[in-house]
Write a structure and sequence with these properties.
Blueprint (H helix, E strand, L loop, with lengths): L2 H16 L3 H8 L12 E8 L6 E9 L2 E5 L9 E4 L4 E5 L9 E6 L2 H7 L4 E5 L2 H15 L11 H8 L9 H13 L13 H12 L12 H14 L10 H13 L1 H13 L3 H18 L2 H4 L3 H12 L7 H20 L1 H4 L39 H6 L9 H6 L11 H12 L7
Antiparallel strand pairs: 1-2, 1-7, 2-3, 3-4, 5-6, 6-7
């Protein structure tokens, strides 16, 4: 071979490597044999729809690293197949009323992976709504969501990303939902207690996750918008109150029975060490909920009721132990009640982060903004007396939390997240509403 031929061959090989396709990249990572040292992210039984006959086969699925493996039996060592997830789209499929009890979702591989696998999509079915939502959540995290996705994303990442749309203290979705509810839902009985339209909630969630910013028209069901807001809070990878401060907030709830002044002092300490984005969102929500309870004579949602239905979405334990969850629930309700009722004291407007325009991209003069805590070194608002703070609040004759807690709350199986919150909502749905 001549020198010129060798040079051409070398350049051709180098060029082919430099323009490696998505298919080739997937192939380089794809392994038909799982690495036993890699800890599974999730595993369990699902039904898989066959591509030609369209009937269902029960298979054992294991999500490990970037791939989803499936086996004929749980004890099998060799998988029947696997799916490479990065770049894939994960969608929940709405079923017909006559297909009630089918919880179906779809994995659509990236376009370059469809060519390699020879299959457009994989249709899977879970045994329950909760199980399907768990699978979809983990699969989406592994697949990687498109830029601008909102649900299941870290709060600080969403706030930072959305600064390009203008200055915002809280995620745009939260603003949109709150503004719509204040305009159309103040007179809606059972707001945040009654569920919205499930299919529409999913459609709106998918639209936000696709990078769209859908607007709600006047005909949009206000309970659907309220459910969307609760879903966003519930899907945060870490709750608004970080796990590291969970016990601290519970202590505040415990102190309310013995010494409310001390409880408020401890709560102010906990709020002062929240990350800035978490503080801003918690402050925004408590002010918003206070506006709703001012009309509780009509909407039947007092401070206590709102604290009960929203608190479990903002403050939750990292430990999925039913005993831990049951122990914490009444404390969460008490501390959430205090944050809504005394929001002017606990979240003074002087602590709000200033709304400044985002810095231009690649601006060397603009230092990166750290995820700092709030602190209490800024000028304080004039102190508001307890009497003045409470005098402006409307009180409604709602059933006490002690009655709820002493009743049926212990009768259902507790679990964190979607199932626990949905069970909680079923209890709340049965409340007798006051006639005030």
């Amino acid at each position: 071979m001549s020198l010129s031929q060798s040079a051409c061959l070398f350049l051709s090989t180098a060029r082919s490597r430099s323009v490696m396709t998505g298919e080739q990249m997937a192939s380089s990572h794809l392994s038909s044999t799982p690495n036993p040292l890699e800890r599974p992210i999730k595993m369990g039984w699902l039904k898989k729809q066959r591509s030609i006959v369209k009937n269902w086969q029960q298979r054992y699925f294991v999500l490990r690293a970037q791939q989803l493996y499936y086996y004929k039996d749980e004890e099998d060592m060799k998988p029947q197949g696997c799916m490479y997830l990065p770049g894939s789209t994960i969608k929940e499929i709405a079923t017909n009323p006559e297909e009630a009890g089918k919880f179906v979702f779809e994995i659509i591989p990236a376009s370059w992976d469809q060519n390699r696998m020879g299959q457009d999509s994989y249709v899977l079915m879970a045994s329950s709504q909760t199980e399907m939502e768990e699978w979809v959540k983990f699969l989406r995290r592994v697949a990687g969501t498109p830029s601008g996705a909102v649900f299941g994303q870290r709060l600080d990442e969403t706030v930072a990303y959305e600064q390009k749309f203008g200055p915002h203290l809280v995620p745009i979705l939260v603003e949109k939902c709150a503004e719509f509810i204040l305009e159309h839902g103040l007179n809606e009985e059972g707001i945040f207690r009654l569920p919205g339209q499930d299919n529409l909630v999913k459609q709106l969630r998918d639209a936000f996750d696709a990078g769209e910013r859908p607007s709600f028209d006047r005909d949009t069901d206000v309970h659907t918008v309220a459910s969307l807001l609760k879903l966003y809070l519930r899907d945060l990878p870490e709750p608004v109150v970080p796990w590291s401060q969970y016990e601290g907030f519970l202590l505040c709830g415990q102190l309310t029975n013995a010494d409310e002044a001390k409880a408020q002092q401890e709560l102010m300490k906990q709020l002062s060490i929240l990350p800035r984005d978490n503080y801003s969102l918690l402050s925004y929500i408590c002010r918003f909920l206070h506006e709703i309870q001012l009309n509780c004579a009509v909407n039947k949602m007092s401070v206590d009721n709102l604290a009960t239905v929203i608190g479990v979405n903002l403050i939750r334990s990292k430990v999925e132990d039913p005993a831990v969850i049951m122990r914490g629930t009444p404390q969460i309700q008490r501390v959430m009640t205090m944050m809504i009722r005394d929001h002017e004291i606990l979240f003074p407007k002087s602590k709000d982060a200033p709304l400044s325009p985002p810095a231009p991209k690649n601006d060397p003069k603009k230092p990166p903004v750290p995820r700092s805590s709030v602190g209490w070194d800024a000028t304080e608002d004039p102190p508001i007396s307890r009497t003045d703070s409470l005098s402006s609040m409307v009180r409604c004759g709602e059933p006490s939390f002690k009655l709820l807690w002493g009743g049926s709350l212990g009768s259902f199986g507790w679990c964190r997240g979607t199932a626990g919150t949905r069970a909680f909502e079923h209890i709340l749905k049965a409340w007798p509403l006051s006639k005030s």
